[in-house]
Design goal:
Blueprint lengths: L8 H11 L2 H8 L7 H6 L3 H8 L3 H13 L7 E8 L4 H13 L5 E2 L6 E5 L5 E3 L5 E15 L9 E14 L5 E6 L5 H12 L2 E3 L5 H8 L3 E9 L12 E5 L7 H8 L3 E9 L8 E5 L4 E3 L6 H25 L14 E2 L2 E2 L2 H19 L4 E3 L2 H9 L1 H4 L1 E9 L3 E4 L10 E5 L2 E5 L7 E2 L5 E2 L5 E2 L7 E5 L1 H11 L9 E5 L2 E5 L8 E2 L5 H5 L11 H13 L13 H9 L14 H9 L15 E7 L5 E9 L16 H18 L7 E5 L6 H13 L4 E4 L1 H20 L3
Parallel strand pairs: 27-31, 29-30, 30-31
Antiparallel strand pairs: 1-7, 1-8, 1-13, 2-3, 3-5, 4-5, 5-6, 6-7, 9-10, 9-11, 11-12, 12-13, 14-15, 16-26, 17-18, 17-24, 19-20, 20-21, 22-23, 24-25, 25-26, 28-29
Helix pairs in contact: 1-4, 1-5, 8-10, 16-21, 18-21
Length: about 725
């Protein structure tokens, strides 16, 4: 590891001449009377100048002051960053104070990487600007490969690490900050370090062309780099990218012609006599917001430039947003968007941006909805899995009201797909058969349903998708923390509930404690558990009679007969009947009017002062051969539950008759992330949820068996 002085040679020389007397200099350098001191000092190497200045106590103090003034090696580049979640200065100072003392707060990388580690050894501080800036010092170790010229190991490839410093300059008064650093390779590691240890969100931007000109305003162009646009026709020069230079560049015909060429855009340039830089000039590259100067400037000059650049950037963005200029989004081109743990790119990212822009407009207009075109709806459907959307088909039934359209064979909610550029309706289980708007669809009650595409399609974003839009849209002075969906051609936005609800469990419901004694039933283990799971594999959400379509008459007959233990292992038994046995209620699962759930009944929530609640539970049969981690959102059963859950939420948000407590149930282990997503979504919207998985169904079955055994014992 080695470290060099960050002070430029000229500053060291000026410091020596202004601090040390000629007598001291001659003495330290052993110079004769005939030697010109000034010339001799200028001929010294930088390391020799440092040793000279350190040779006296006064010089030591001077060097410390100079290194404070010039903290960065060479001519640093300023990297504009989009900053979010910036806490108060006190919190950052306290956090960095703790980090500086903690050896574990070091971000390390593999040996072959250019940057070996990122860490901090000093706390942040507030700089005296208005508004104030917070300065976070960061150190990084940069790998340097070289070939030895030492006779003992001549030609050997060697590696050393250079310790270098960078600064993060941010403020919660701005939506942007800057990273001052001498190595581009260190920028991504620094951003990752800030995210991991300071929980500060930093992203590199893309500078739109008009913002580029605003940042360059006042400077004289010396060099300019132009590149062909994505939709370039035939530029007058058959070169994809070119850089031009001239002392009087702005007055050259070539420069003017390149600027007027619609098939090219300027991507970088160097501007002399820039108003924010007193010495030299300023270079700007639109990609990743890089701003540089060839001069090794003192930090206070860099900071003044930094504040000017941030202010200019935010002025342009504000103007774009106010004017409804969609190129506003170009600035956030490189901001990473992750959905369900995966980054979205290419076409899905373009679709994401289109939806985001519609949400921007809704927020700015203080509206609740906006019309989107059919093309966007089709694109969302086509990429719904990547974008994290669930699709349903919903319409009005003359008998039942607002209903989900379901597959007549298995009663799974239909979903929408794109086939040969057209919208098709498919069952998540019977996917080979595709339908369109001209097919005949029936409600479970038998009523013919009218379907118009895409009007009757709803696209619901999962919690990961919703959070991605919230993070992306909450830029500048905008704040989006609600929920939205695509309702046909309407993008509808809903505010976040003021009261966060919670997840409940069976033991929180009065009937389950009073009748099923769910709170005292021992967990089912070992051989007994295997027997119960065997039962749960057999029992389905609908009984097998009448080709999976039980009638009211069939359910009434089932009510009348006495249930014995072997009945619950029979294919002609159903999950609603099993759950009803546990709490002594007869459920038939036949839907009437607005009762759009497999289980619906009234109960009391014990934790909420015994509050009356209307409970609706959606049931799905146990899935065969589920993954060890549990069934996730991609499984057909969970897709169906998600569709029904979103349907119930939508009705509640639109003040339509719905349940007070919505339940989703499948007798499998549920993948934890999927479970968390459902709970987070519903509770955040103020809608309490009940999730029943394999462990719950083991207890439900045990309670049902106990009921049957008691009936037999007392001959009920």
């Amino acid at each position: 590891m080695r470290g060099k002085s960050t002070v430029p040679k000229d500053a060291l020389i000026n410091g020596i001449l202004s601090t040390l007397t000629e007598e001291i200099i001659r003495d330290r350098l052993n110079l004769g009377i005939s030697v010109n001191v000034n010339s001799r000092i200028h001929n010294l190497s930088k390391s020799e100048l440092v040793e000279l200045i350190k040779s006296s106590e006064k010089g030591e103090k001077l060097l410390a002051n100079l290194e404070e003034k010039y903290p960065l090696i060479g001519s640093p580049t300023l990297y504009l960053v989009i900053s979010k979640n910036i806490p108060t200065a006190k919190k950052i100072i306290d956090k960095t104070t703790d980090i500086a003392k903690d050896d574990k707060c070091v971000l390390t990388f593999s040996p072959e990487k250019t940057i070996r580690s990122i860490y901090n050894t000093d706390r942040a501080r507030v700089l005296n600007f208005t508004p104030y800036l917070i300065e976070i010092p960061v150190f990084y170790e940069r790998r340097i490969d070289f070939t030895s010229t030492d006779p003992e190991n001549w030609g050997e490839n060697l590696i050393i690490y250079d310790l270098r410093r960078a600064f993060i300059w941010i403020s919660n008064a701005y939506n942007h900050g800057l990273i001052a650093c001498s190595d581009y390779s260190a920028i991504s590691p620094i951003i990752t370090w800030a995210n991991n240890f300071l929980e500060i969100s930093l992203d590199l931007p893309n500078i739109p062309l008009d913002m580029f000109y605003r940042l360059a305003e006042g400077g004289l162009p010396r060099t300019a780099t132009f590149a062909s646009t994505e939709m370039a026709g035939k530029p007058f020069l058959d070169i994809q990218s070119l850089t031009v230079y001239d002392q009087d560049l702005k007055n050259t015909e070539t420069y003017k012609k390149l600027q007027d060429d619609n098939d090219r855009e300027q991507w970088a340039g160097y501007f002399s006599q820039h108003p924010t830089i007193p010495i030299g000039g300023l270079g700007i590259a639109r990609r990743y917001g890089r701003i540089w100067t060839p001069s090794h400037l003192p930090k206070d000059t860099l900071l003044t430039s930094a504040i000017n650049l941030i202010s200019r950037t935010e002025e342009v963005l504000t103007e774009k947003l106010e004017l409804g200029d969609k190129t506003f989004l170009d600035h956030y081109k490189y901001v990473s968007v992750n959905i369900n743990g995966k980054p979205i790119t290419k076409e899905p990212r373009k679709i994401f941006n289109d939806i985001a822009w519609s949400l921007y407009r809704i927020i700015k207009k203080h509206s609740k909805q906006e019309i989107v075109d059919n093309a966007l709806v089709l694109k969302v459907i086509e990429h719904k899995d990547v974008l994290g959307f669930i699709t349903t088909i919903e319409t009005d039934c003359k008998q039942c009201g607002f209903v989900l359209v379901k597959c007549p064979e298995c009663l799974s909610p239909y979903e929408a797909v794109i086939d040969d550029g057209e919208i098709k309706i498919v069952c998540p289980i019977h996917r080979d058969t595709k339908h369109d708007g001209n097919d005949v669809y029936k409600c479970e009650c038998g009523e013919i349903l009218e379907i118009i595409l895409p009007n009757n399609i709803k696209l619901y974003p999962g919690i990961s998708t919703t959070q991605a839009f919230r993070d992306f849209i909450s830029q500048k002075d905008l704040k989006f923390d609600g929920w939205f969906l695509l309702d046909g051609n309407l993008l509808r936005s809903y505010p976040k509930s003021k009261i966060r609800s919670q997840e409940y469990h069976l033991k929180d419901l009065n009937l389950w404690r009073l009748r099923a004694h769910i709170h005292v039933i021992s967990p089912v283990f070992g051989k007994g558990k295997n027997q119960v799971i065997k039962i749960l594999k057999t029992i389905k959400e609908k009984c097998n009679q009448n080709n999976w379509h039980p009638s009211k008459k069939m359910c009434d007959e089932c009510y009348k007969r006495k249930i014995i233990l072997k009945d619950i292992s029979n294919n002609n038994f159903c999950l609603p009947r099993l759950i009803g046995l546990a709490i002594d209620i007869k459920f038939d699962g036949i839907h009437h009017q607005y009762e759009e759930a497999d289980i619906k009944y009234h109960d009391n929530l014990i934790p909420d002062d015994n509050r009356d609640v209307y409970v609706g539970i959606h049931l799905k049969s146990r899935e065969k051969d589920p993954p060890r981690r549990g069934v996730g959102q991609a499984s057909s059963g969970m897709k169906g539950l998600y569709a029904q859950l979103f349907f119930s939420i939508y009705k509640k948000l639109n003040s339509l008759p719905s349940f007070d407590l919505i339940g989703v149930s499948i007798p499998n282990k549920i993948y934890q992330e999927t479970r968390n997503a459902m709970v987070d979504l519903t509770t955040e919207l103020g809608y309490p949820i009940l999730v029943l998985d394999e462990e719950d169904w083991l207890l439900i079955t045990a309670a049902a068996i106990e009921t049957i055994e008691n009936q037999q014992e007392y001959n009920i």
